[in-house]
Write a structure and sequence with these properties.
The chain has 13 helices and 18 strands. The protein has about 450 residues and is of the alpha+beta class. It has a 6-stranded mixed β-sheet with strand order 7-2-8-1-10-9, with helices on both faces. A 4-stranded antiparallel β-sheet has the order 12-11-13-18, covered by helices on one side.
Length: about 450
């Protein structure tokens, strides 16, 4: 097997004795498991070690693969400059991996290096690994802001590259779990913190990699994890392979989750093509969703699909409900892809002749003109979920106490600046969060007191 195995490990510098200065004993279980994982890698005798680190160079829409022949690093940032590293990169592997990614239209490459020195997400695993084996080269890969499925696909490219080059490789998925496990921890407590750690350790302990896609972006954000995408790339490299999964340990001593698991490849397994299974389920769900969409959403979908495929804007068709021709209202069209926002544009007050025209204009803008995203591509269309919010009249209020995060949207104004947030959005749980988000959208300073608040209700169409 070209892929010999993989390990899921954390990267807390404090477990390095030269940095912890005695504090590392509080995470001894983690250190002991780290040594077991490193010893396992040494037994596999890899030619190349692929390190996936969330602290390497990261872009929103691009995977950075470290270029050049090698790199250096040390723990000077953590008051231990005497602990140094020098690694040789597997340049041939990098070249072929980039070609494989390009063949699958995955934006990945060696451009855009902002920091050549090794990051601690890479160095902590190497600190332990170097105690058992040193005759290896590495490939260092950063994460991106793209969907989990794209991270998994990059993992598939790693496996394909190893097979093409007949390289025996091991993948290290470097990443801490939740950073919000304790009130007295450095990042405080959030209930999603321990929930995330319990779920991810269950999934990874069973090697049930298909369940990685079930973690919503909002849930991961609230848990403040940093390793989920690393683990997903690692899992992609094991796609279609039978593995012996072993959960070694989990600790949250310092308020941050440290989980360690190992995966030894023992053969092929046609039941473990998880991305293929997930996409089949998504297609089936999309068909069911299309069958239940109301006429507002059907119009938004037809608008976007026609515009993306042909570049033309549809006309308002006949046979719509009378209210879509006669009513004027502000409308927001929202697009999601794999649970992540993909575009959202709307109008607070009507600017077109009727709701139908408002949907058409804002649907095109959501797909092609939302400045936060690149324009929707034709191959994405079948994966998009739509919602259409028709806004009611806004009314001025005197206090945030008159708001309800589930029922009312909020408009925050100061002079000519005006920001809006819709009600009942995933990840927005309090009125304070609503107001803060609307402030930021409007560019209103946090300390500004002369703000005007308005509320409104919506009818949300799915």
């Amino acid at each position: 097997m070209a892929v010999k195995g993989a390990v899921m490990v954390p990267h807390p510098p404090i477990i390095i004795p030269e940095i912890g200065c005695g504090e590392e004993v509080k995470a001894r279980k983690t250190s002991d498991s780290y040594r077991k994982a490193a010893e396992k890698i040494a037994e596999w005798r890899p030619d190349t070690v692929i390190v996936v680190s969330p602290h390497s160079v990261m872009y929103a829409d691009y995977f950075h693969i470290s270029p050049g022949t090698g790199a250096k690093g040390d723990f000077g940032q953590f008051r231990a400059p005497q602990v140094k590293f020098r690694v040789d990169y597997d340049t041939e592997f990098v070249k072929v991996l980039v070609q494989e990614a390009e063949a699958r239209d995955i934006p990945a490459g060696t451009l855009g290096e902002r920091e050549k020195r090794l990051d601690h997400g890479t160095m902590v695993p190497l600190y332990f690994l170097d105690q058992y084996i040193q005759d290896y080269r590495i490939v260092r890969i950063g994460l991106s802001g793209m969907p989990l499925t794209v991270h998994y696909e990059l993992g598939e490219c790693i496996r394909k590259t190893a097979e093409l080059l007949d390289r025996e490789v091991v993948i290290i998925g470097s990443g801490d779990l939740s950073h919000k496990l304790k009130e007295d921890g450095p990042y405080g407590f959030q209930k999603e913190g321990p929930e995330y750690d319990e779920r991810i350790m269950d999934v990874m302990g069973r090697g049930a990699f298909g369940e990685l896609f079930d973690f919503s972006e909002d849930f991961c954000d609230k848990a403040a994890e940093c390793g989920h995408r690393s683990f997903t790339i690692m899992a992609g490299a094991l796609d279609g392979l039978k593995v012996k999964a072993e959960r070694l340990s989990h600790q949250g001593t310092f308020g941050v989750g440290y989980g360690i698991c190992t995966y030894e490849v023992t053969g092929n397994d046609p039941q473990r093509y998880f991305l293929e299974q997930y996409r089949r389920e998504q297609r089936e769900a999309a068909e069911r969703r299309k069958g239940s969409e109301d006429v507002y959403v059907q119009l938004a979908r037809e608008t976007v699909e026609t515009y993306v495929r042909t570049g033309t804007k549809i006309r308002v068709s006949e046979g719509l409900p009378e209210e879509m021709y006669s009513r004027r209202a502000g409308v927001f069209v929202s697009l999601k892809e794999e649970g992540r926002l993909r575009g959202c544009i709307g109008t607070i007050t009507p600017v077109r002749r009727n709701v139908a025209e408002e949907i058409i204009e804002n649907g095109i803008s959501a797909a092609a003109r939302d400045p936060r995203f690149h324009a929707v591509e034709p191959e994405e269309l079948d994966r998009l979920e739509y919602s259409v919010d028709v806004l009611g009249e806004t009314e001025e209020i005197d206090s945030p106490e008159e708001l309800d995060v589930k029922r009312y949207g909020v408009v925050v104004s100061r002079g000519y600046r005006r920001g809006l947030i819709l009600p009942d959005l995933e990840g927005v749980d309090t009125v304070e969060e609503q107001i803060e988000i609307a402030r930021r959208k409007a560019g209103i300073p946090e300390d500004a007191e002369d703000i005007r608040l308005e509320r409104f209700e919506v009818v949300r169409h799915f």
